[in-house]
Amino acid sequence: NAGVMQNPRHLVRRRGQEARLRCSPMKGHSHVYWYRQLPEEGLKFMVYLQKENIIDESGMPKERFSAEFPKEGPSILRIQQVVRGDSAAYFCASSPGQSEQFFGPGTRLTVL
Amino acid sequence: GENVEQHPSTLSVQEGDSAVIKCTYSDSASNYFPWYKQELGKRPQLIIDIRSNVGEKKDQRIAVTLNKTAKHFSLHITETQPEDSAVYFCAARENNAGNMLTFGGGTRLMVKP
Question: Which of A48, A61, B34, B43 is the most exposed place for a label (fewest CB within 10 A)?
Fold first, then answer.
């Protein structure tokens, strides 16, 4: 049973470009969470999704950020018109229900 | 919403000594408290967790205690080893439909051989 998968592991974008981060949850997990981690800081909740539904997006910036978890395929975190302040590690976690969350390896986004 | 404070931010111990990391939370409705270990450049890994109906839980050299009245919980690592060196995060989950974790700021543990 493969763990949570994320790709790409490293992503470099220039200011103004779009970043797309993908997360495939563990097999049997229908709950996906996205967290952001700035250097030397803790993880900050962004959004919680189940298949085709956004359950809680209270941690998402109001502009430029969006997330989806379609019926088929991975969950996508999309950042439009990236700025330098978006540079961070973005971690996805999954759980089978409201239980333990298991994290993926993260995507390290660098905005030039 | 929930707020989690974690102390200390850095902790240096000699190999074989014990290490204790403390966290406080603000929302009395929180009912689940996991601890994650994160090595440099790696993913956070769940090492132990405790639910609000339990006061203490132990797994080999790691133990977690929870004081619901005082709203604080602690991680105890005994007989520390150099491979325990990492950043440790506590977290709390509110008892609602959101299931989101609120993390502490992390503790960088250094175990000196």
Answer: A61
Q: What is the pLDDT along chain B (113 residues), one digit of tens a residue?
A: 789 999 999 999 999 999 999 999 999 889 899 999 999 989 999 999 999 888 899 999 999 999 999 999 999 999 999 999 999 999 999 766 567 899 999 999 999 99
Nearest chain B residue to A49 by CA distance is: B98
Tell me if B111 sits within 8 A of B78, measured CB to CB: no
B24 Cβ contact partners less than 8 Å away, ≥ 6 residues apart: B4, B5, B70, B71, B72
Nearest-by-CA chain A residue for B49? A100
Question: How many angstroms separate the CA atoms of A40 and B107, rounded?
Answer: 10
